[in-house]
Write a structure and sequence with these properties.
Blueprint: H1 2-30, E1 36-37, E2 42-43, H2 52-57, H3 59-71, H4 75-88, E3 93-94, E4 97-99, E5 106-108, H5 115-131, E6 136-141, H6 144-147, H7 163-171, E7 177-178, H8 200-215, E8 225-232, H9 235-240, E9 248-253, E10 259-263, E11 270-272, E12 296-301, E13 309-314, H10 322-325, E14 331-335, H11 344-350, E15 355-361, H12 362-367
Parallel strand pairs: 6-7, 6-15, 13-14, 13-15
Antiparallel strand pairs: 1-2, 3-4, 4-5, 8-9, 10-11, 10-12, 12-14
C-alpha cells in the first residue's frame, strides 16, 4: 500500500512537472508577442531571424535568450514572486534594484564609467562650446544612489560616490561653464522612491543652482506644490518586482497659463501642454511633464523675465525642470538627441539661440551614444 502511494505521488509530480514545462511552452507559442511593456515602460524583444553569421558570432543565442525572457508567459507575476522570495531570504536586491533600508525607496544599481569613456562623452560638450560664440553651460545630475545614500542597504557597492561629477568638472574646457549640482539637494523628497527621476521639488532645487549660475538669479521662489497623483509607480519599481512598496505622489508647482508649448513628436508642429494630465491615467505618469519623450519641444512665454532664447540639450529629467526655466526665458527649446537627428549647430543658428544648457542625469549621459551630434 505504501509503495503504491509513493508510486502515485511520483506520477503526480511527474505529470505536474511536465504540464508546467509543456504548458508554458505552448502558451509561449500561441500567445501574441507584446511589443511594449506598460509595466516596465520599454520596448520588448521581438522574434529573432536565424542567420549563419548570428549563430557563428553567438549573437543569435543572446537575442533568443532576451526574446524568451521578455515574452515569457506571466512574466510580471514571476518577477514579483522572485522579488518576494529574495526579500524573505534576506537579500538586498532583485533584478539590479536595491531595496532601501527605509522599506520605501528603491535604487537602480549604478555603474561608474571608465575615465576614457567619460572623457569621450565630455569632449563632445567641449567641442560644442568651442564651436559657438554664445555661452554654453553644462551640468550633470547626480544619481539617486548619491543623493539618498543614507537609505542604501549595507554593502551596496554599485552606487554613485560623486566621483564622476567631480571628474567631469575637471575635464571641461574653458569654452564651457560647468554647473556643480552635487550639493544642491536636501531632504528625502528630491527623488521619487519608485523611479530614477528627480521629483518636482528636486527639479526646483536643481533650478535654483542652475538659474543662479546662468543668470545670477532665478525667477521662481518656492511656491506651494499641487499634488496631481498619488498612485505613481516608476520604472525602478517595475524592474524590482517589489509589489509591497507604496506608490509615489506627483506634484506640480502652481504656475500661470502664459505658455505656448509646441511639440515636434512626429516631425510636424503640434500643440502640447506643460502638464498633460491624460498621462495620469497611464502607467508612465512621469510623461505628464511635456507629454514624455520627443525629439524637439519649444516653450514660449511672452511674460518671461528675459527675452532670451535658451537651447536645452537634455534627457527626460529636463521635462520637469522646463516649466521653471520657462519663467526665465522667453523661449526654451528642448532637444533630445536620442530622437533628434538634425544638425545641432544649424538649429542654434537658424533659431537665434542666445545660450545653451547641456543637462543630463549622470547615468544617461554616460550611456547616450548620440552625444556626438552636438558637434554637427
Amino acid at each position: 500500500m505504501h509503495r503504491e502511494m509513493n508510486k502515485g505521488y511520483a506520477i503526480l509530480i511527474t505529470v505536474l512537472f511536465l504540464g508546467l514545462i509543456y504548458g508554458f511552452g505552448i502558451l509561449h507559442i500561441v500567445q501574441k508577442d507584446k511589443v511594449f511593456s506598460e509595466q516596465e515602460n520599454r520596448n520588448l524583444a521581438q522574434t529573432v531571424s536565424v542567420s549563419a553569421e548570428g549563430v557563428l558570432s553567438g549573437s543569435y543565442m543572446r537575442d533568443i535568450e532576451e526574446y524568451v525572457s521578455d515574452q515569457f508567459p506571466l512574466r510580471d507575476s514571476f518577477v514579483t514572486m522572485k522579488a518576494a522570495a529574495e526579500r524573505i531570504m534576506g537579500k538586498q536586491e532583485n533584478n539590479s534594484v536595491y531595496f532601501g533600508t527605509d522599506k520605501e525607496t528603491l535604487f537602480a544599481q549604478y555603474t561608474a564609467p571608465a575615465l576614457s569613456e567619460l572623457s569621450k562623452q565630455v569632449s563632445y560638450v567641449n567641442q560644442l562650446g568651442e564651436s559657438l560664440s554664445i555661452p554654453v553651460f553644462f551640468s550633470l545630475i547626480p544619481d539617486k544612489t548619491f543623493v539618498l545614500a543614507s537609505h542604501l542597504p549595507e554593502y551596496a557597492y554599485l552606487t554613485d560616490d560623486g566621483s564622476v561629477l567631480r571628474e567631469t568638472a575637471k575635464i571641461c574646457s574653458d569654452s564651457v561653464t560647468y554647473i556643480d549640482l552635487l550639493n544642491s539637494f536636501s531632504g528625502e523628497d528630491s527623488f521619487y522612491k519608485t523611479d530614477h527621476h528627480w521629483t518636482t521639488y528636486g527639479a526646483y532645487q536643481g533650478y535654483q543652482t542652475i538659474g543662479t549660475a546662468m543668470r545670477g538669479t532665478y525667477t521662481i521662489s518656492k511656491d506651494k506644490l499641487l499634488q496631481v497623483s498619488d498612485d505613481f509607480y516608476g520604472t525602478t519599481w517595475s524592474a524590482s518586482g517589489a509589489g509591497w512598496i507604496k506608490p509615489d505622489c506627483i506634484d506640480i508647482m502652481v504656475l500661470g497659463n502664459d505658455y505656448k508649448v509646441t511639440s515636434y513628436r512626429t516631425g510636424t508642429a503640434e500643440e502640447a501642454l506643460l502638464y498633460d494630465s491624460s498621462f495620469l491615467e497611464k502607467k508612465d505618469q512621469y510623461a505628464m511633464f511635456l507629454g514624455g519623450n520627443q525629439p524637439l519641444c519649444v516653450i514660449k512665454n511672452d511674460t518671461a523675465a528675459s527675452k532670451e532664447k535658451l537651447l536645452l540639450i537634455r534627457d527626460s529629467f529636463a521635462d520637469s525642470l522646463a516649466p521653471f526655466l520657462a519663467q526665465d526665458y522667453e523661449e526654451v527649446h528642448l532637444l533630445d538627441l536620442r530622437y533628434y537627428k538634425g544638425s545641432v549647430l544649424s538649429y542654434i543658428e537658424e533659431n537665434d539661440i542666445d545660450s545653451v544648457l547641456v543637462l543630463y542625469s549622470d547615468a544617461e549621459f554616460i550611456s547616450d551614444s548620440n552625444l556626438f551630434l552636438m558637434t554637427q
